[in-house]
Every structure is written in structure tokens, then in C-alpha cells.
Write a structure and sequence with these properties.
Length: about 350
């Protein structure tokens, strides 16, 4: 219980005091009696979308909770992880005062969220082999950072961080730890979702945009202590997840065997691409990947980036990020797309 109070002490007082927008019908629908809904000025003629969505996504959270073995009151659903990250920063960081730790090279959205919310970041670069610099991270604790954002597997390097090191950080960090597991389905390394109850200040973010194949519907998930979820629910836009998204995700949860097969195929394809690229003189190094993309180093990434564009292939050039000079980040495509990628690399290698 004292733990609950501690996490709430990390939240901004105005967020704690906030009174959420209340949808009038929430307490009356879903019961035994079919109600006539004349409370929200909707068009009453039925279609798939004439009614506002369930603001708390109860049915979807039940189903997702069963799939993830997580109680619904520890789940928040957002319009992509992007919304989740923004809300978390708004809850915990006082603009112009609080600080957040980021670990570059890292997912760019953390810095964008910090900039939008007027939050100073403390950047602790990974090592040149894209590993956590735990001592340097611990050295930031003297500045009392409010949050730390750790993507594992990391984007853009693709590797997972060792679980013991993650746990060391989680155990000792003075604020909120956001562990972004956007690519977790691609790795044999375990999610820390089943350790949530041990760490009330740990927040795990996952997404339907990657392995689940639903980037277009925008669903980000956040798993955390129920008191953090309650704050997220207070802060979010009342109808942040539309009806179509909720339905599509319900259906996708019934297709998990197929998703598993797609993930296995993407991983096999990743190994095929890497094995072939490793044989090319052009490719200097391919970094270990636990995701559906990989980072490779070449002599001149700018030139190859543009040559791939000429072949009709778009990859990412993260070379401006720390330790990423002359690298390209490449996502795994369909087998046919991957064949075309390899053909393009072969052509560039010969030129
Ligand atoms: C580490 C990481 N987190 C989150 C996301 C974004 O997820 P969403 O589509 O749910 O906003 C990405 C997308 O590239 C990512 O790499």
C-alpha cells in the first residue's frame, strides 16, 4: 500500500486532482436490460459505427487480458504506443522541471514526447556494441530523473538488453521505468510482463503495429499497476479507440496461430537475408537482431541508401544517431520483397 502511495507521489498533482470527462451512458449499458440511448446526440439509424465506442474498451480488455494473462484493470489501450507514451509523460513529468532518461540510439518518439511536453532529457548513450551502460545510467539517479525509456528489443539496433541488467535498473531507478516491448514477439527473450506485480513503478508498452500486423488500426497497449492505469484513463480523450479498431483487434486475437506462423516466417526470412548479405564485400557488419529488422554497417550508407531508392527500395538511414555512422536499418519484407532487396544489394555490390 505504501508502494501505491509512492507511485502516485511521482505523478503531477494536477493530474491526481483531475476530474475525468464522464460519458453519461457508461454506467447504464452492458447490463441485462437493453436501454434506449438518447443521451449522446448520435444518428440513431444503425450502422457498424453510428454509436460512440466503449470508452473503457471493456470487452477488448477482457479478451486481451486473457491472452496476455494480465487483469483488465492493469491494461490501458491507446491510439498506438505514441498516445500511451505522450500520456505517460504528461502524467509524471512537470514541464520545465522534471527530467527523463533516454538511451540513444533509441526510438525517436521519446525525445519528441519530451520536447512536446517541455521535459529535459538526459541522454545516456548505449555502448558502441549497443549495450546498456548501467553505471552511466545509475550516475543519472543523483539528478532524480522522473522517467526512463528503455526499448528492448532496441530500435534501431535490433538487440534485446540482458534481463539481469534491465532488472538492476528497474530495481534501483528512482522514478518510472517504461519498458517498450514493441518487438517482443520476435525474440526468444522473455517479456517482463509477468514481473509487473513485483514492480509498481514498471510500465510495459507493447503494440499491435509490428508482429500483430495491424499498424493501420493504431493500437498501443500499456500494462502497469492499476493506480497508473486509473490515471491514464482519467487523462485520455474519452473515445480514444474507435469502434473499427476495437472490432479488428478482437478478430485478430482469434488469429494468433496465423500471427505465430507469420512471425516464424519473418524470422526465417531475416536469417536468409542476413546470411546472404554477410557474403557481400559491401557489407562490413550486421549487428545481432532480436526483432523483425536488422542494422548493418557499410562503408558509405548515404550512397547505398540512394542506390536502393533507385532500385525502388526504401530503408532507413539512422547514420546521424550516435554509434550508427554508416548504418542502414532494414525491415524484413515478404519473401518476394526480400528477394528484390537481395538482388538490389547484389547489383550495388557489383557496381
Ligand atoms: C520501440 C518502438 N516503440 C513503439 C513504436 C511505435 O508503435 P505504435 O505504432 O504502436 O505507435 C515503434 C515503431 O517503430 C518502436 O520502434
Amino acid at each position: 500500500m505504501s508502494v501505491d502511495r509512492d507511485i502516485l507521489q511521482l505523478a503531477r498533482p494536477e493530474i491526481l486532482a483531475l476530474k475525468a470527462y464522464q460519458s453519461a451512458r457508461e454506467e447504464f449499458v452492458g447490463g441485462a436490460r437493453e436501454m434506449i440511448l438518447l443521451d449522446a446526440n448520435e444518428n440513431p439509424y444503425p450502422s457498424a459505427v453510428n454509436r460512440y465506442p466503449d470508452p473503457m474498451q471493456k470487452e477488448l480488455k477482457q479478451k486481451l487480458g486473457k491472452f496476455k494473462q494480465c487483469p483488465p484493470d492493469q491494461i490501458f489501450l491507446g491510439n498506438g504506443s505514441d498516445e500511451v507514451l505522450h500520456l505517460l509523460m504528461q502524467i509524471f513529468c512537470v514541464p520545465g522541471k522534471d527530467k527523463a532518461v533516454i538511451l540513444p540510439p533509441t526510438f525517436g518518439m521519446y525525445q519528441v514526447c519530451a520536447d512536446i511536453n517541455g521535459v529535459e532529457t538526459i541522454a545516456v548513450p548505449l555502448t558502441a556494441r549497443f549495450q546498456l551502460d548501467v553505471l552511466a545510467i545509475e550516475a543519472t539517479y543523483a539528478q532524480q530523473p522522473k522517467m526512463i525509456f528503455i526499448p528492448s528489443p532496441n530500435n534501431p539496433s535490433g538487440n534485446c538488453f540482458p534481463q539481469e541488467e534491465l532488472l538492476t535498473i528497474i530495481e534501483n531507478f528512482p522514478g518510472i521505468v517504461v519498458l517498450d516491448e514493441a518487438y517482443v514477439e520476435f525474440t526468444a527473450n522473455a517479456s517482463l510482463l509477468n514481473r509487473l506485480d513485483e514492480f509498481p513503478h514498471l510500465i510495459i508498452v507493447q503494440t499491435f503495429s509490428k508482429a500483430q500486423g495491424m499498424a493501420g488500426v493504431r493500437l498501443g497497449m500499456c500494462y502497469a499497476h492499476a493506480s497508473i492505469i486509473a490515471l491514464l484513463n482519467k487523462l485520455k480523450a474519452p473515445y480514444n479507440l474507435n469502434v473499427l479498431t476495437q472490432k479488428a483487434v478482437m478478430r485478430q486475437l482469434d488469429r494468433q496461430d496465423e500471427v505465430g506462423r507469420e512471425v516464424a516466417e519473418m524470422l526465417a526470412e531475416k536469417n536468409r537475408i542476413i546470411t546472404t548479405l554477410e557474403g557481400l564485400a559491401l557489407v562490413e557488419e550486421i549487428f545481432p537482431s532480436d526483432a523483425n529488422f536488422f542494422l548493418l554497417r557499410v562503408a558509405d550508407s548515404e550512397r547505398i541508401y540512394h542506390q536502393l531508392l533507385e532500385e525502388g527500395i526504401v530503408v532507413r538511414n539512422p547514420s546521424k544517431q550516435v554509434h550508427c555512422q554508416n548504418t542502414l536499418r532494414i525491415s524484413v519484407g515478404t519473401p518476394l520483397e526480400n528477394d528484390m532487396l537481395l538482388a538490389a544489394f547484389n547489383k550495388i555490390n557489383r557496381s
